[in-house]
Specification:
It contains seven helices and 14 strands. By secondary structure, the chain is an alpha+beta fold. It folds into three domains: 140 residues, no CATH class; 34 residues; 85 residues, Alpha-Beta Plaits (2-Layer Sandwich), CATH 3.30.70. A four-stranded antiparallel beta sheet has the order 12-13-11-14. Strand 3 and strand 4 form a beta hairpin.
Length: 359
């Protein structure tokens, strides 16, 4: 026994179907809406809802069920009660139920129900607020008995079959593509106008623009020349042709490519009183921040003079076995940490390249 046809007929006529010991199906109106992003328009519609509360007239569904299946009312009630028991067990065990040719029912955690009606079923005369659909049932075929007499006994009803083509609803189309094309065309036109305006201004004022760029280049050249002059003044007079060796005992020496400044004019080395040089005590086990190493005492003396002018208290270390004379910024430190602090300060703030020697 199928109940889908009876449920649909009562939904269309009474807007609700009450089933004893099971619950009630009813229709609920959904208002028209506009999607916030796509702006698609959804027309008003109705959906089927289900509740455990039984309506006031379950007898109407039982009478219709007995009439459509051509059985007695008591037999219809008995068969319906067996189906209801199966429905309740399925909801309790699986939390879902399928009513053949009608809908799927799902029990939610909050004890509410979701009803998904089978595709292409019509359950309302004013579906989508349009004129009523014509519900066409299949005509009951006549059955010939053995004596070729027409029998009035009808075949079992297979349920309502509604063509999907008849349910197509024409909805107004929003010309979204036309609006997008028009908007894109306007943006492209604005970009071309903006580029044309820039090119026109550049052509009209090209002389002024060239003057500005030439003035900036001249200022850059002047700054570079000023930096070179300042470099020549502060650089100590060192014989760059002589070979500078690296010390044997070095704790930390930055690996930096040596760049020799372009010297356009070298002033004669001033006469230095070598007797005034301060020498570091040998084997004092102190840490020195080295400013330079030389093979000639005159070059070492020139660097001492330069460091004194800059406010340092330089000391000189006697030549080692390779003949290298080293000049330190200050007298030796007791700990390597203090010497490293001075070397870091010179490297970061003065652009110097010092290294540390234990002497």
């Amino acid at each position: 026994m199928k109940i889908a046809s009876s449920i649909l007929k009562l939904l269309i006529e009474d807007n609700e179907v009450s089933i004893r010991n099971f619950g009630m199906f009813y229709k609920e109106l959904e208002n028209a809406s506009i999607h916030p992003i796509t702006k698609d328009v959804s027309p008003p519609s109705k959906k089927v809802m289900f509740t455990r509360v039984t309506g006031s007239n379950p007898e109407r569904f039982e009478d219709l069920l007995a009439t459509e299946n051509n059985i007695s009312l008591e037999e219809a009630k008995s068969k319906l009660q067996l189906m209801v028991n199966e429905f309740n067990d399925s909801l309790k065990t699986n939390r879902k139920l399928e009513i053949e040719d009608f809908a799927d029912i799902k029990l939610n955690i909050d004890n509410s129900f979701d009803v998904v009606v089978k595709k292409n079923l019509i359950f309302d005369k004013e579906y989508f607020s349009l004129p009523a659909f014509q519900i066409q049932n299949k005509p009951e075929p006549h059955v010939m008995d053995e004596n070729n007499n027409i029998s009035n006994e009808a075949l079992p009803e297979e349920g309502l079959v509604v063509s999907a083509e008849k349910q197509k609803v024409e909805t107004p189309e929003v010309p979204q593509d036309k609006k997008k094309k028009k908007s894109s065309f306007l943006w492209i036109l604005l970009v071309f106008l903006f580029m044309g305006a820039l090119l026109t201004l550049g052509y009209l004022y090209q002389d002024d623009v060239m003057k500005i760029f030439q003035g900036e280049e001249k200022a850059i050249v002047e700054n570079v020349e000023a930096d070179e002059v300042e470099l020549l003044v502060e650089e100590p007079q060192i014989d760059y042709d002589e070979e500078v060796a690296t010390p044997e005992e070095v704790y930390e020496e930055p690996i930096v490519e040596e760049i020799k400044p372009v010297v356009t004019h070298v002033a004669p080395a001033p006469t230095v009183d070598l007797s005034k040089l301060k020498y570091a005590p040998k084997n004092g086990e102190k840490y020195y921040v080295i400013a330079g190493s030389f093979k000639r005492i005159s070059n070492a003396a020139n660097l001492v003079s330069q460091l004194e002018k800059r406010g340092y208290n330089p000391v000189v270390m006697a030549a080692d076995e390779k003949g290298l004379i080293r000049v330190a910024y200050k007298p030796g430190f007791e700990t390597e940490r203090k010497a490293r602090d001075l070397a870091d300060e010179l490297y970061e703030n003065k652009n110097e390249l010092p290294w540390i020697l234990k002497y």
